Amino acid sequence: MVILHFNRLDMTRVCCASLQGQTLPPAAVIVVDNGSTAHSPQELEAACPPGVIRLRAPRNLGFAGGCNLGIRFARELPDVGHILLLNNDTECPGDLVARLAAELGDPRVGLVGTPMAEGGRRATVAAGKRLWRPFALPVAARPGRRLDYLSGACLLIRGEVLQEIGLLDEGFFFFFEDADYSRRVRQAGWKLAVAGGAPLFHHGSSTIARLGEMQARTYRMGHIRYLRKHHAWPRLAAIPPFLYRLTLDWIMGNAASWRGSLDGWSEGWAQPDPRTAGSATIPGGVRAR
């Protein structure tokens, strides 16, 4: 299990504590400190239960880069096959790991997610979403409809999928890496599955209606990268939602999001062609703290 941590020490403490009574204990719990600046390594050590492995990234590598750091290390440990990615701002029901693992009983399933209870109202949010075509915008899926992707906030990856598909694309910093990975997995012939039972509690927000500057920048960059990888006419598909976002930010007076969207647009197109850049591979060499 890989838990990505950045600054929010109390949430990581709660998340780790919720894993202590799992009916199917994970073979290893790895907390990746993704370049935190709000606390010391000693404070993180004190927040983690005994036996938790801590890794320290040299800087904030983004969601994909931080998760890949943990995955590479985990794959070198004995008795570790499948990998569960888990946000640090989550609390797990006691049977979560067992329910996720049970879905891998179907040999065609490559990724497994779970519904989440989000925010203060604890409204249940689906394990994943569909991408509204032709713009590839995430939208809620109707009950019973096939999902285009599963959320990276809680994502169980079959070991064979990691060997065949590789790791997350580190060209994505914070948004759309889970949509990209799910698509790559489906294109290789694997299925996505959703575990039933009690939802995972997720403290994070279920909406991006009011983005800050960094969130807007990384969202726009991720959207453009996804379109460049998977759309025949990426610029045509990217322009309408970009202009809509700018208009909405102008109406709402959200100058930070406006600036972030403009920067993300420029940086997204300035990246090397993601179709030829290749994906991260498994080899490791990561050292624990």
Set out the fold topology.
Layout: E1 2-5, H1 9-18, E2 30-33, H2 41-47, E3 53-56, H3 62-74, E4 83-87, E5 90-91, H4 96-102, E6 109-113, E7 116-118, E8 123-125, E9 128-132, E10 137-139, E11 149-150, E12 154-157, H5 159-165, H6 177-187, E13 191-194, E14 200-202, H7 213-230, H8 234-252, H9 255-270, H10 274-277
Parallel strand pairs: 1-2, 1-4, 2-3, 6-13, 7-14
Antiparallel strand pairs: 4-12, 5-14, 6-12, 7-8, 9-10, 9-11
Helix pairs in contact: 7-8, 7-9, 8-9
Task: Figure out the total of helices.
Answer: 10
- Taking pLDDT < 50 over at least 5 consecutive residues as the criterion, the unreliable ranges are 281-289
> Strand order across the biggest sheet?
3-2-1-4-12-6-13
> What's the SSE pattern?
EHEHEHEEHEEEEEEEHHEEHHHH
| Largest beta-sheet characterization | 7 strands, mixed
Mean residue pLDDT: 89
Strand content: 15-25%
Percent of residues in helices = 25-40%
Based on CA atoms alone, the radius of gyration comes out at: 18 Å
Q: Termini distance?
A: 17 Å
Number of domains: 2
User: CATH topology of the largest domain, anyone?
Assistant: Spore Coat Polysaccharide Biosynthesis Protein SpsA, Chain A
CATH architectural category of the largest domain: Alpha-Beta Complex
**What is the molecular shape?**
globular
Number of strands: 14
CATH class of the largest domain: Alpha Beta
Which secondary-structure class do the elements indicate? Answer: alpha/beta
